[in-house]
Write a structure and sequence with these properties.
The chain is of the alpha+beta class. The protein folds into 3 domains: about 90 residues, 2-Layer Sandwich (Phosphorylase Kinase, domain 1); about 220 residues, Transferase(Phosphotransferase), domain 1, CATH 1.10.510.10; about 90 residues. Helix content is about 40%, strand content about 10%. It has 15 helices and 8 strands. β5 and β6 form a beta hairpin. The radius of gyration is 25 Å and the shape is globular.
């Protein structure tokens, strides 16, 4: 909801007079503004530390131009921007509707009919974006606005400007590219992000809409990212009619997820949903928000009902209110919703170290494995350099003939450790090839160590 401007807020941005605060994100503050004729817009001001990054303005200009192509029914169109202003800004049409996050918080989770309608609308929106080459990258409940004629997806296309030219996320203080609870696995580990990433985020958004909690619980950023990459989603609170659809969206492998073009028909039941092979059947969850893969007889975890924020999907007393997901009455609040939401706040509250110790859905990345790789990389790099110097100076023929042999042994050790770590971190094939080639180059393993350490920081390290 709009909030009054503070004394530190600007009064005018470009041709727009600011009237209120609308919120804040990783890129900057968002304001409600008015043009000279009274048209209302949402104006986003870029944070100063981001604007100072070399190359940001060029990338920002490119992404704004792409975002301006995304009009139609499914978004709030970008109407104006100034990448060259002292503080860069972008303005989009103001859409006066509650976000999905606000709707669920105020009225509880959606019933199955409203959830299907929401899924179909969001699928059509993503299809419209993907058809012109746009990927949202940060689909989450606060970026979905609910209107009478369907949902609107906002605040997309700009997040790619927050990467450097190599595709590495900028690490400005307080800046997170994407929202951990709704990221895709490939986005969490820094791999290439494409259209399937939006589909995974859609599955997380729909889970939130149906249960009031994301499929990977809550908690610290590291804990959430670990679960997104390595653990199976918690789908036990979903209505049975939409569970296969959402499970398909949440497949760990991008190629296993359905396309946005097919999802709308799946959402309304016009075509069947093929269950992905890599998503386990839903089950109860433990107090840390992890799926219990071996439940006790009767289908529940020992010790009573499993916590984790899953919300009963039956109607509240009096039955569901009429309408779709675009009205206040569209969400059906369960009678037990407040207590379930309180329990949901404890899901995944463990630290990154605790999450790294979990073995559900994938092997943890321990500090020992990373340090072994670093030691092998440094030793191999130094010995390879010494071997090259000895060969250039002729010292190999004067008593240092053992150096190439030792260097070769350490190169083999480095490759063994590097391949094992790369498999654990699920790095792209190209990176694996570079890791192997680096072992034969002077100082190449030092560069490989820096790259692998950067990738490892994106995953919880125990």
């Amino acid at each position: 909801m709009p909030e009054p401007l503070s004394a530190e807020d600007p009064v005018v941005v470009g041709p727009y007079r600011l009237r209120a605060r609308l919120g804040a994100g990783g890129m900057g503050q968002v304001y409600l503004g008015e043009s000279g004729s009274g048209r209302r817009v949402a104006v986003k001001l870029v944070r100063a530390e981001i604007a100072r990054d070399p190359g940001f303005r060029r990338r920002f200009r490119r992404e704004v131009e792409l975002a301006m192509k995304a009009g139609g029914f499914w978004t709030a169109p970008v109407v104006d921007a100034d990448p060259d202003a002292p503080t860069p800004w972008v303005a989009s049409q103001y859409v006066p509707g509650p976000s999905l996050a606000e709707q669920v918080a105020a009225h509880g989770p959606l019933d199955e009919a409203a959830l299907r309608q929401l899924a179909a609308g969001l699928a059509e929106a993503l299809h419209a974006f993907h058809r012109i080459g746009l990927v949202h990258r940060d689909l989450k409940p606060s970026n979905v606005l609910l209107l009478d004629d369907g949902p609107r997806v906002i605040d997309f296309g700009i997040s790619k400007a927050l990467e450097d030219d190599s595709g590495t996320a900028l690490t400005a203080t307080g800046t997170v590219l994407g929202t951990p609870a709704f990221m895709s696995p490939e986005q969490a580990v820094g791999r290439e992000v494409g259209e399937p990433s939006d589909i995974f985020s859609l599955g997380s958004v729909l889970t939130f809409a149906a249960t009031g909690c994301g499929p990977f619980g809550d908690g610290s950023t590291h804990a959430l990212l670990f679960r997104v990459v390595h653990e199976q989603p918690v789908l036990s609170g979903l209505p049975s009619g939409v569970r296969p659809l959402i499970a398909a969206c949440l497949s760990k492998e991008p190629a296993d997820r359905p396309r946005a073009a097919d999802l709308a028909a799946m959402a309304v039941g016009a075509v069947p949903v093929e269950a992905p092979g890599r998503v386990a059947a839903p089950g109860p969850v433990d107090r840390r928000g992890r799926t219990v893969h071996d439940p006790a007889p009767g289908g529940s975890a020992p010790g009573g009902p499993a916590p984790g924020g899953s919300v009963p999907t039956g109607p509240a007393p009096g039955g569901p209110a009429p309408g779709g997901p675009t009205t206040a009455g569209a969400a059906t609040a369960s009678a037990s919703w407040p207590s379930d939401r309180a329990r949901a706040s404890t899901v995944g509250a463990q630290s990154a170290g605790e999450s790294a110790g979990s073995q559900a859905g994938g092997a943890a990345i321990g500090r020992g494995a990373l340090w072994r790789f670093r030691a092998a990389a440094y030793a191999s790099g130094v010995l390879t350099l010494v071997t090259c110097l000895a060969m250039v100076t002729g010292a190999v023929n004067s008593g240092l003939s053992v150096v190439p042999v030792v260097s070769g042994l350490f190169v083999i050790l480095y490759m063994y450790v590097a391949v094992r770590l790369s498999l654990s971190l699920q790095v792209p094939t190209g990176t694996k090839i570079l890791l192997v080639l680096a072992g034969w180059l002077p100082l190449g393993t030092f560069l490989a160590e820096r790259e692998m350490s950067r990738i490892a920081r994106r995953v919880a390290v125990g």
